[in-house]
Design brief:
This protein is mainly alpha-helical and about 210 residues long. It is about 80% helix and about 0% strand. The protein has one domain. The protein is globular, with a radius of gyration of 18 Å. About 40% of the residues are buried.
C-alpha cells in the first residue's frame, strides 16, 4: 500500500472543516429541512449534501492530479490562480459576516427522499462549491500522489461535510439552537476568511512572489 501524505490530508481537512461550518446556502437548506421535516428530514438532507460534496471532491482531486501529471510545469500557475481565488473568497466571506440571514420555514413537511434530493442538489448546483474546491485543493495536491492519498482526500471531504450537517440535523433541530448558530455565524465566517487568506498568502510566498 502506498503511503498516504498526511500533511496534504491535514491541510485539506482543515479548510474542509471551516468551509462546512461557514453559514451559507447549504446550511440554510439543511436547517430548513430539519425544522420542517424533523430530524429525519434533516438527516436525509445532510446525507444527500455529503454525497454531492464527496463526488465533487473525488472528481476535483483526480482531475487536478491528472492535469498536473500531464503538465507538471502548470503547478505554480495553478497555485497562484487558486491563491487569488482564495483571496476573493476570503474578502467575500469577511464582508458577508455581518449580513442578516433568514431560514425559510415551509408549511409543508418534506419527506426524507425530498430532503436527500435537496441536499444533493444544493451541493451539485452551487458553483461556489466547485470553485472553492479547486482553489483549495490546488494548494495541497502534488503530481505523483498515490491513489490512496487521492482517495483519502476525497473521502475526507465527504466525511467532514456529512458529519457536520448530521450534527446540525440532530442537535440543532430547535429554534433556540438555530438562533445560537445564527449569532455565531459572523465569527465563523471571519475565522474562515482569515484561514483562506492565510493559505493564499502562504502559497504566494512559496511560489516566490513578492
Amino acid at each position: 500500500m502506498d503511503n498516504v501524505l498526511f500533511p496534504a490530508l491535514f491541510g485539506a481537512g482543515t479548510v474542509f472543516v471551516l468551509g462546512a461550518m461557514s453559514p451559507g446556502p447549504s446550511l440554510a437548506v439543511v436547517l430548513r429541512n430539519t425544522l420542517t421535516g424533523g430530524r429525519r428530514g434533516g438527516v436525509a438532507c445532510a446525507l444527500g449534501h455529503g454525497l454531492g460534496f464527496g463526488v465533487y471532491a473525488m472528481v476535483a482531486v483526480f482531475s487536478l492530479i491528472a492535469l498536473l501529471e500531464a503538465a507538471e510545469h502548470a503547478l505554480p500557475l495553478l497555485r497562484v490562480l487558486g491563491a487569488l481565488v482564495l483571496l476573493v473568497f476570503a474578502r467575500w466571506t469577511w464582508t458577508s459576516a455581518g449580513a442578516p440571514r433568514t431560514v425559510q420555514h415551509d408549511t409543508l413537511r418534506p419527506s426524507g427522499r425530498t430532503g436527500f434530493a435537496e441536499g444533493a442538489a444544493i451541493a451539485f448546483l452551487n458553483p461556489k462549491i466547485a470553485v472553492f474546491m479547486v482553489a483549495v485543493l490546488s494548494q495541497v495536491l502534488e503530481p505523483g500522489m498515490s491513489l490512496w492519498t487521492k482517495a483519502a482526500i476525497g473521502a475526507l471531504g465527504m466525511v467532514i461535510d456529512t458529519m457536520w450537517y448530521l450534527v446540525v440535523a440532530v442537535f440543532l433541530s430547535s429554534k433556540r439552537l438555530e438562533d445560537v448558530l445564527e449569532r455565531r455565524s459572523s465569527a465563523l465566517n471571519r475565522w474562515l476568511a482569515v484561514a483562506l487568506a492565510g493559505l493564499a498568502v502562504w502559497t504566494l510566498a512559496q511560489v516566490g512572489l513578492p
